[in-house]
Amino acid sequence: MSLYRNPGERASEAVTFRLTVNEKRLLDHLAFRAETTLTDLFRDLLAQRAREIEVEELPPEPVRRRPGRPRKTPIETKTAVPATPLTPVSEPEEDVNAPMATFGELVEGFRGHFSDRAEGTRKELDEAIRYLRDNTALTALLRRNMPLSDLTSDRLASVRDAMKNMEMRFSKRNLHLTYLRMMLQWAMRQPDVTLNIDPKTDLEAFSIKEISNAWPGPLGTERRST
What we know:
mainly alpha
């Protein structure tokens, strides 16, 4: 039985890039070190870049008209409808939720804000939250009951250093860092939250140069040399 895929999930679009010789060699090398194909590597880089610049939704797809002359549709005759008095619109109730005061409340508030996103994106967020809560070093730095007033640039720098020294794939490490940065940027836009931090600077994405084990090969160097 053939595996059915939705049209939006089928890899049916071909894209051509022009690269220099060294850029092509670098692309092949990164795919080899990441143990993946060129297509999957490009998809990972594309998704990572979208998260970094906070692109959460695609623009609406342009309407495509079928070839040929459009079909004529009969003009409907409109019948006059007597006007009905408008009923007063009830004002929405004010939000009675207490203002965010701790890091745990900030995380849960962002989770609610993120609840209308795609299922895959929500799973990535949940994975990032579990990563922050289950890791001993990060839990000590970002306690759930920590007052938001204690969230400083120095503390975020310590969080980034702790993540830098952990054993994890380079792309996954940056993905968790991106979601933490998104949570803090969202919190800073809330009227009841005051944070003296700069998430984009304090939690800058990791570069390959600063992560010694960013692209581990399929086998250790010692094993391949024997």
